[in-house]
Write the structure tokens for this entry.
Amino acid sequence: MINAIITPVVVMGLLGLVFGGILAFASQKLAVPQDERVPKVRAKLPGANCGGCGFPGCDALAAAIVSGEAPVNGCPVGGAKVAEAVAEVMGADAGATEPMAARVLCNGDCEKAPRRADYYGIADCREAVIANGGPKTCRFGCIGLGTCVKNCAFDALTMGENGLPVVKVDACTSCGKCVDVCPRSVIELIPKNSIVHVNCRSKEKGKIVRTACSAGCIGCKACEKVCPAGAITVTDNLARIDYEKCINCGACVRKCPTGALVKEDRVVPRKKLIKKPKPDADDSENITE
Amino acid sequence: MKIFTILVAGIFVNNYLLSRFLGICSFLGVSKKLDTSIGMSAAVVFVMTLASAITYVVQYAILNPLGLQYLQTIAFIVVIASLVQLVEMFIKKTSPSLYMALGVYLPLITTNCAVLGVTILNIQSGYTFIESVVSGAAGALGYSLAIILFAAIRERQELNDTPDVLEGFPTALISASLMAIAFLGFSGMI
């Protein structure tokens, strides 16, 4: 009786063992030599398969990193930690990758940016833009239908009460999906430790900006003059911040006549900030970009 | 003479794809391009022939003496699965492009019912060792014949102006059924 149970177990076990042994032997004989580092790199990647790197998944990115098609810091989600771990496997230098986060560079909420039409179409910014440029007067600002919120895989974006998407900086993994789907390119990936932003993308002249938004950049250059780090330049009627140089002092925010410049209400490590940009301010000019 | 009969029966009369309707998954999945279907056929020929030989040994040397015939299915699947793994490693080593082209369908030979079907039918028909191997090879060749012909047809169909509703799989299924009807003509041969 007991044999009826034991024999099949033993037989199947032995069968499995024999074939397993053959396979183990074959896997050593037929191993593809190049693949050594791919599983190691793959193990260091987050494994979310979000596709933020531009490859079909973490496996594909690992293969690309090993073959040299992608940089060791190719994973935007993992940030510096993963880049360092991958660089260790690859024996390369990670390079300084600051953790990035998406920011919505627009002040045009329901109050500040007047509407010129009502939009009753599909609730998707990309659709609204096709319908004669969307409901708002400003041709550069946020449409406010929340396509970025819907596409965020990490719940880092929510729609604020005033009709502008709000980024939870800590939750953002900088995968860049919102940047891709935004038809107005209002969202940008910016270092997490930078908290002063020009929340306007309008390249119109000051007069036109004023009619379209009460908090738009009019290109007056007041910020450019007041910035102690020389981080702000105004081109095409729009101020831009060089985040390599910016020290988060907020002098420009106080000077801005329209309130286009905004300082995030968030605490970032102060020491690091003051220390970091100072030596970088001179050196980084030649190195980066 | 019996071997010749088995060969003809496996390739034409009892074609696994078109008259027994086993292994349809890969038949539809890998038949978009002639190259990949030829690669798939080669893999199936290898797996089916070897599986027939090994399962014969497993059946008559291990299962029958111990009275474990009821383990047939699971034992055969173990054999087939490890064979497929072996083939996969081999293809990965020798032809990465073929490996990429076959994609998920290569591991799917593991659960390809045609392979399991051949091995079990061999035992049920009471074939000898040689006959089993020939039957496996014949079944695989029949599979190859059907899938390669089908891939060639589908490649041509791609260029045709088909109605939107019938584009893709509907046309593929219709042509597969027409092929099956055509293969029905062989049924009187034996």
Summary: The interface with chain A takes residues 58, 62-63, 66, 68, 71, 74-75, 78-79, 82, 85-86, 89-90, 92-93, 96 of chain B (CB under 8 Å).
